[in-house]
Amino acid sequence: RICGGTRSNGCTSKPYYDLFSREVIDYFNKDSAMAVPFLSSSLQLTATSPILFTKLTTPIIHNQRTTTCTAPTKPRFHLLRRSAAPGTAVADQTEGGGGGGEVLLNPEEEKRVEVVDYDWTEEWYPLYLTKNVPDDAPLGLTVYDRQIVLYKDGEGTLRCYEDRCPHRLAKLSEGQLIDGRLECLYHGWQFEGDGKCVKIPQLPASAKIPKVACVKTYEVKDSQGVVWVWMSTKTPPNPEKLPWFEHFARPGFFDISTTHELPYDHSILLENLMDPAHVPISHDRTDFTAKREDAQPLVFEVTERTNRGFAGTWGREKEGGKGSNLLRFDAPCVLQNNREFEGKDGVKNYFSGLFLCRPTGQGKSMLIVRFGVTKRSPLVSVLPQWFWHQNACKVFEQDMGFLSSQNEVLMKEKVPTKDLYLNLKSSDTWVAEYRKWMDKVGHGMPYHFGHRTISLPKVPPVVEHAPAGLIAALSASYPAKGGIGTMHAPNLANRYFRHIIHCRSCSKVIKSFELWKNILSATALVLTTLAILVVSRQWKAVLLGSAALCSAVAYACLRAIELNTNNFIRTHRRL
């Protein structure tokens, strides 16, 4: 009934990988013993079952007819049971193949997929930079597809609830803070502390508030300037799993931290962040460290593999392959790239690039970036903080177009990354390690794309393309809040909604620039009017000169606003 690439005997053509469709899953569950020999009658396939792909050459028999399937260009599937016991290994029948010699990472290196116990809710996830949490309003956030609301109560204590009112499911993040309580703006129900409802305006004076009128709460911790949330409501928070970063606790350690909301999946984001090979190409001349001509083979060494991540060193081949960079990935989504170096005075200094990634639903993610050093460059002290923030935005915009399209391809193809990627030993070691780690633990996530296994999201994906060409020019043009005609429409392809609304300092800077621009423009207009009215040539010159100066400074303020809010567009994409 289902062939490698098509259906025969008059059936409508259909891709072989369309096995995720509900009718086919039901068909397998009903007729698995008859239809496909390698499916046991005890195995039940679901839309989110992790799937391990391998070739299938066995003829498929249906209604006493034998149909010989054409060999597919991509491997067929093998099923990985969700019920596999923790720590057990599942045999992989994938055939080796493909050229590439010693250049590609060998697909034969691992013959078995190890499954370990994992529950995505029993983890700490980075929510927000503490300094950016609003004091006077609730903040709506998501972890995977679970919506939560974060706010500060009257005493400044951080509180986190499920983002829905128990009354009629309105979002509490759309509400307001009244005397330190979180009020739903639909009917005015108020909640405090451990989620207890303390006020219902529509309730008679003699009636008591029902005990069930409460909201689900989540444990939050403020650690090293970041707010973390424990997503399980059944298992008590595990303090040992709360990340601690040694370098950020060093005396005199200085960091620049930014927050970015991005239109592609967190796994693709992490791939990108652990890929040093793309920097010279994608970010050529973004700063003095990235140059296209410096693209070269890299040398990697994996020094640690655990059920919670991996670590290793990497360096440039031209520099002798010395592993001066120390990379570490820890579950669920924490990535570090650290370096130690000695200054001219012989004192050891430390650098850390810390990437705290939070999945916000398939096709979306939020990232907290923290670059820190014990010895900072004089340039960092001279240039304002907003300059470094806009430069960080530029870096992510340079990657955004192809990463969002990569997200779409993964969702469309519905096969593991080993059937799509050509991973090179000299550039993609960390990417392969990350996807193999997801093979181990992906069964405990809402969805995952592993090296050999996948499970698709239950919630339909949100695929948002980064615009290009004329569309990009319009959506990124001033005013930046959503582009032309949509002053307040959220748009993750726009820098204002990706960064500015999440950064208190940048928001203040833009408001200041906007205020000064308006004051100086009005002053220039007044001075020009006075210059027209006065008779003295000397005064005319003074007034017109002052008006010109005010106009120039107002224009500089406008350019500063545009620099902070407008998207970076590559030269070949500009009009």
UniProtKB/TrEMBL annotation:
Keywords: 2Fe-2S, Chloroplast, Iron, Iron-sulfur, Membrane, Metal-binding, Plastid, Transit peptide, Transmembrane, Transmembrane helix. PROSITE patterns: RIESKE (PS51296). Residues 124-229 form the Rieske domain. This is Rieske domain-containing protein. The lineage of its organism: Eukaryota, Viridiplantae, Streptophyta, Embryophyta, Tracheophyta. It comes from the Eukaryota. One of its GO terms (cellular component) is chloroplast. Gene3D superfamilies: Naphthalene 1,2-dioxygenase Alpha Subunit, Chain A, domain 1, Rieske [2Fe-2S] iron-sulphur domain. GO terms for biological process: protein targeting to chloroplast. Pfam families: PaO (PF08417), Rieske (PF00355). GO terms for molecular function: 2 iron, 2 sulfur cluster binding; chlorophyllide a oxygenase activity; metal ion binding. The chain crosses the membrane at residues 515-535, 542-561. It is found in: Plastid, Chloroplast.
